[in-house]
Amino acid sequence: MADLTARIAALWRYPVKSCAGEAVDTLTLDADGWPEGDRGWGIVDAGGELTWMGAHPRLALVNARWLAGGLELEAEGRVLQVAANAGSAVDVRGWNGERQDFDALQAWDAGDDAAALLRATTGERLRLVRLSLEAQRRPILNALHLVGDGSLRAWSEAMAQPLNGPAQRARPNLLLRADDDSDALPAFIEDILTEARIGALTLSRTLPCVRCVVPTVDPATGIPQPPALDALTRLSAERAPGAPVQFGIYARGSGAGQLRVGDRVELSLNFG
């Protein structure tokens, strides 16, 4: 029996790690409970290391759309399609915070046209790579990110100035809203969420989402705004004193299925 019911307000996937997300009406989970088309590509720097929006904020201006046969990038008024089966094999490195060392990862370079688009947008020598499944599913990574609309509202209200694009900054896969749509969910309800059931699918909580500098990046300009993280830090300290800054949770699906905007969600909560 559910402790609370909600609805899926919005869904996103992120075809390229650290680039802008793609709003979708339906998110398909594979047999392992991971969203299809999500974070299958990455950005590497000149040293062959997977990099991120915190190091290159203007990656927020690169819009990526997942296609069955590859990827579509849009930035600086230009659209580029990249085939999934193209590119030469390259070895890249990804930081593993648990081991405090780099993991060697297999990937395929997407070519000079994609690199030129990234250079024009960020001013940096970056390259787009398609990641192997093993690289996408490293044990340190998480399948889904979930946040409630009440938490986004609390974050915005904690800012002295209006916060542009809070959902885009938070980068969830699922945004939940109240079932009756009369008001937002209680702020930070996801902190005590243990399971979310959508039809035959169960999304089980794995970890809280520890936040970095990425939520400071304005999705419209690619410019960091440090007060956004300051507000998250204050809100997190009120809920979990002494813990790292938390906002949203990670979860994993019970198997294959589809999530749709508007779906009813039954939430199980741990009030202890």
Description:
The protein is of the alpha+beta class and about 270 residues long. It has 2 domains: about 5-30 and about 140-270, M1 Pyruvate Kinase, Domain 3 (Beta Barrel); about 40-135, no CATH class. It has 5 helices and 17 strands. The chain is globular, with a radius of gyration of 18 Å. The model has no long low-confidence stretch (mean pLDDT about 95).
Task: Write a brief structural summary.
The chain is α+β, with helices and mostly antiparallel strands. The chain contains 5 helices and 17 strands.
Walk me through the topology:
Blueprint: E1 4-13, E2 22-24, E3 26-29, E4 41-44, E5 63-67, E6 70-75, E7 78-83, E8 89-96, E9 101-109, H1 112-122, E10 127-131, H2 133-136, E11 144-148, H3 149-157, H4 166-170, E12 174-178, E13 193-198, E14 201-210, H5 227-239, E15 246-253, E16 257-260, E17 264-269
Q: Strand order across the biggest sheet?
A: 1-12-11-15-14-13-17
**Which descriptor suits the 3D outline?**
globular
Structural class of the helices, strands and pairings? alpha+beta
So how many helices? 5
Strand percentage lies at 35-45%
Q: Radius of gyration over alpha carbons?
A: 18 Å
CATH class of the largest domain: Mainly Beta
Order of helix and strand elements from N to C terminus: EEEEEEEEEHEHEHHEEEHEEE
- According to CATH, the fold-level topology of the largest domain is M1 Pyruvate Kinase, Domain 3
CATH superfamily name of the largest domain?
A: PK beta-barrel domain-like
